[in-house]
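Late entry, written up from scratch paper. The run itself happened at the end of the previous shift, but nothing got recorded in the book at the time, so transcribing now.
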Amino acid sequence: MKIDLSYQDFCSQLQGRSEGVSFTGFIQEVVYDSRKINQSQGLAFFALNGPFRNGHEYISDAYEKGVRIFVVHQVPTNNWSDASFIVVEDVLSALQILAGNYRKQLNYPILAIAGSLGKTTVKEWMYHLLAGKIHVFRSPKSYNSQLGVALSLLQLPKKADVAIIEVAATKPGEMKILAEMLRPTHGILTNLLPTHSGEFKDFAQYSREICSIFDEVKWLITTEPLESLTELNVKKIPIQPLGLDSLIPFQDEISLHQSKLAMEAAKQWIPLEEERIQSLPHLAMRLETFEGNAGSLIINDTYTMDKEAFKSSLSYQLSIAGLKHRIVLIGLSGEQEQIADELRELCQQFDVNDVHFLRQDEDLPLTLKNAVVLVKGARFMQRVANRLKLKQHKTQLSYNLSTLKHNLNQYKNSLLPETKMLAMVKAQSYGAGLTTIAQFLEKQGIHYFGVAYSDEGKELRKAGIKTPIFVMNAEEEGMETCVEYDLEPAIYDFNQLDELLKVLIAQEKTAFPIHIKLDTGMKRLGFYPDQVQQLIEVLAAQPEVLVKSVYSHLAEADDQESTFTAQQIAQFEEICKQFESYLSYPFLRHMLNSEGIAHYPNAQFDMVRIGIGLFGLSSNRSFEQRLKPVIDWTSSISQVKIIRPGESVGYGRSFVAEKEMRIAIIPIGYADGFKRSLSNGVGAVFIDNQRCPVVGRVCMDMIMVDLGDIKIHFNTKVEIIGSNQGLTQFAKDCQTIPYEILTSISPRVHRSYYEEE
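Output as recorded:
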């Protein structure tokens, strides 16, 4: 975020106290994420706190990368003699003050987009309609939070024709802070949905909060009825029929509504062009991340090509790359080629390893291996991104990382501030992809990762994961791997402990971290209560190990009234007291999984373990209402056939048509995870929001479904799990549980990951 202030002016604006060395140069840029530091001259690091992280923990990393100016709540104890510290009461508030002061220097219109859903889409489509015609700037990705809006403001140029900034509030009082900082001149309200009012007293309070950002705007574009919000006294611009709606390249109601909002707003600045409307991009691909060939990771960001968006993409690539080689593939067409030198210079600023400019139909000039590849630029680069995919399969599984983050924060908000969180990423993160999900969660500041076996932990370390890793099923054969890759094994019996001690003694290791598993009633792995005294005596005599935590597992975590659970908790507390009386150092205690957090928050102890809850599932109905679904499982139609009365469908001729009907053949079967038990109408998919039951038996690679009267065309999208059919319902139809569905979706199904608002 570019600024240009003397150190003294910087301190004054932040209302901070300077300690350490007084910096003599100018502050040119601010940063809050040590992973995104690619140059350090004139850079100030804001040590921000979040639900999972203390920003002060990353000062050392920023210092090692050359940063010498730090905005902090308190000066760290391991002080550096050549560093400057600006001490403020609240680091985020200081950043917001800086952003608000910068906003006062800008004299062009700022349009705020608020609402429950669709903010990023409307913003990007409005930008698409205006870009190149006037000087327009928009906030990157979905930077709409208390932090995101401040960062967006600090990125604004000194001169422009209009800036488009999206804003969001998740609890009372947040929008007031954003309004004072942003001071928007115009507004768009996308929608107001009761499902997003969870942290508010009621829907009315939520609506007032969201709309308060528009108190001082000159006009507001919305289709929402605002009669009930009488205090909002602004000019309301309705969406006018333009005669251009037929050009919108989308058919679904939501996209049509969002397109019209963007078009109505854009035409307040310039006349709309038919070509721009027809080329409104599909934004689901925005920063889509998927597995590529030879261990590579592909970031597909091909829908736009401007310098600010490019910087944002380079920053994202840097933050997820870890130790992988960074490659950028840029496709330019026509007038875009004149900015090639500027784009190459930006890549150099981010220390990209390889940069390649491609023209249409040009062969890819490299072989990928263990790389993170950013594909950016002209529309033909979409084909380049597709060629780099590891799996070419019409059936796809998409993970919304923004909603996964939302779910993580919902669990965190239900805990005490000091309670740590361990994220279970075993079984390929419940089928979502071990390293991809772990890298994302590490960015959120998760305290621990849990894996089943040491090989999973080894894979995480090789991917650059530095967060502590807890191995739950640490078998004797994997003890050397644990030691070599700094993994922390769970110890659940004496033979296993003895094997670890042999390895540690041979390598002359001491104080190696371990976790003690107790069996308080689950009857899986773990020491029985009557073995604890003997265990403590062994541990006291072995300096090779150090107990990091003592933990157990609830057998009935989903039953809020379970007396058995109450007995387990009481027994666990007594055993922990035994350990406390013998060990001379502190250790963590943990017992709750996702269901336990929702049903027994009073037993959170020092740490909790979250797993299936990350994907938006809970048997606690009131808690589940705060969560959002993470996955969309889709396919497309391969062929449509007419079936006449008396004709059969599929193996064993288990379905015979009683009347003429149309069926669709879809490329998904039990080899993909679509269970054979869903045959003959038990299961279904949704096409055009209508339920289409399976006819005949599920095949290994295909299913046939009844289309009824639905009008479809080749490659029509098919929903397997999504808004019409959730994961819980799909699992119920399969007569199983969501865990099994998530972990049994075949690796051949293409996975992709994206972030949105």
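The longest strand covers residues 325-331.
(Scratch paper discarded after transcription.)
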